[in-house]
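User: What would this chain look like folded?
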Amino acid sequence: MAKEVDLSSREWCDLVFEGKNKDFGAYVIRTDSTKRHNKAVIYTIIGAIVFAALAWGLAQANKYLEERRLAAMAEQEEVLIDMSQEEEAPEPEQERLEQPKPEVLPEEVLKSVKVTELQIVEDDKVKKEDEIKTQDELKETETAFGQKDNEKGTEDRNVTRTLKEEVVVEKPVEKPKEVKEEVFRSVEQMPQFPGGEAALMKFLQSHINYPPMAAENNVQGKVVVQFVVDKTGRVGEVKVVRSVDKDLDREAVRVCKSLPKFTPGRQNGQAVSVWYTLPVTFKLQGTN
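Assistant: Here's the prediction, encoded as structure tokens.
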């Protein structure tokens, strides 16, 4: 049987180049090929390990940043201060005031007189009750031709009745409750200030009036404000989610309410109302 030959061994290389010029470059390349192959394998393994470590580290970093973001949002919710809208106390319903109903007097009816008219008609058209009765029948019914039939009533024409007015306060008609439009916190396309973030910061710097009391007491800091950009781009409800000082908070809310129209946010291609978070920095000149 033929002996197994290791093609990467030096013996095989010497056998191949036996009787040939070994100083030629091909011999050197052939003898060093095993080292090169081993180095290539080692470098490949090291590169795979480094790549896997980088991918794992990146995933961990993203996870840590996400946890930090959620923690920051939770902290903001805890210090939520709504300075723009206060719940309106429901107006007390006006009670219906009714005065006691006046006693209704029985209606007085004047006596009336029924006169039987004499009319000549054919016999077959005469009603039984209109037939002229005999003397005997008249005695029994106590009625006679031309006799007045007095109905029950009163002859006093001066009877008057006083009607008392009833004072009624009508209950106001309740207006139909308006259905509040949904306000998103995150959408596919967030609202954009005309000119971008740089223009927004420039607007804040040029329109902020530093409160004198805060300046006198050297009060500085960053007020984090949230406001609604509705589907028309206008700024709606404004609230402070991270407070520094009541004067600084009030000025931050005022400036945000004066912002011009944004490009509205969009979700599924439709303009929607979105919460927009904006940090407003108050810093006195000449301080580090």
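The radius of gyration is 52 Å. If you want, I can go into more detail on any region.
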